[in-house]
Each structure stands twice: as structure tokens, then as C-alpha cells.
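Tutorial sheet, problem 5. The two components below are modelled jointly, 208 residues in total.
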Amino acid sequence: MTIIEYKNKFGMKPKIGSAILALSLLSGAAYAQRDPAYQNARSNGQIGEQVDGYLGVIGNQSPSVDALTNKINILRKQVYTKTAASQSVTVKTAAFLGGCKNIQRTVPGEKYQAPDGSWKTRGNNAPELDSSCP
Amino acid sequence: MKDAKSEMVKPMIRKKNSKNMLSMISAILLSSCVNVAAPDKPIVINLNIKIEQEVLVKTADAVEEAIDENAGIF
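Model answer (C-alpha cells):
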């Protein structure tokens, strides 16, 4: 359904419709920034989002996947450290909050870690989040 | 007449005595009541939970922003 149709049928709705469209375009652009190798490893279920805010390798994967995961985790730690300092919280807390968000943002088919530590495949329903997630 | 007077006095004394007895009994009863003593430790109401939750939500927003700015590694 196009936005024009929305406009004609619901009057007030187009604003919401275009906002959703703009958001989806934004998030689409954000995901496009991922390195293709990283995106593939995510989609293939080789790596998943951990509760602690970092990526985890699921099972035995190629050294290149291990290296990629390590590289990204180091970069993530930098981001968490910066945010932690600005918010006066520990890096662990910032990373954990990031984990809550990262798990929420997984798309169906991607892997994430459940609060019990097991790996789950994201379905269409909301993921299992740690009870401490806000 | 004298006897009658003493007869009159006697019940009065008895009445007074019984009043004393009553107050004594009630005093004993009261003293044996359950004592409610103030706790020696101060009562602490913990408001940290709510404050922590607010901080967590605020921090979570900041983390989300940082994630969006570094979308390539998230």
C-alpha cells in the first residue's frame, strides 16, 4: 500500500505512515553499513548476540569468523566504554544494556543468547530478554 | 446507734478496699500486658530501586544512540 492510498483513506494516518517508512529506510541504511562478511555470519547463524552485549561464535567456525568476531567485539567495547564514561556507569552495565538492545534488534533467523545462556534462533515473536533489561 | 454507725462505716471501708484492690489488679494486669518496644535499629525504606531503574532507562537510551551511530559493528 502506498502512502497516497493511506492519505486518501485515513486522513490523519499519512504522518504515521511516512514516519514508519522514514524509520525503516533509516534502519535499512544502518544495516547496510555492516560488512558483508559480518552480515553473512549473522544471517547464517555462525555468530549471535550475547546477553553481555558482545558477539559470540556459535559452535566451531572458521578462523576468519573468529577473527571477525574478535575485531567487532573490540570495537564494541570502545563504544560501550565511551557511553559508560558519559553516563557514569560501568562498562559492564553499558555493554549489558547494549546486549538488551542488540537482542531486541535481531531479525528472524539470527541467533541470540537467552537469559539461561543457551543460543536461540530469533523467530517472529519478541526475543527472551534478561529480567534486568529495562 | 453506735453499732449502726460502725455498720455504716464498715461497708464504706470495704468499698474503698475493693476499689484499691481493683486498681491493684488492673495495675498488675497492665504491667503484664504485651510490651511494644521501639526497634533498636532505624527503619530504612529503600528508594534505590526506583532511582536505579530510572538511571538504567536513561543509560539504555544513551547506549542505543551509540549503537545507532556505530551501526556497522552492531
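Marking note: Chain B is about 70% helix and 0% strand. Full credit if you identified this.
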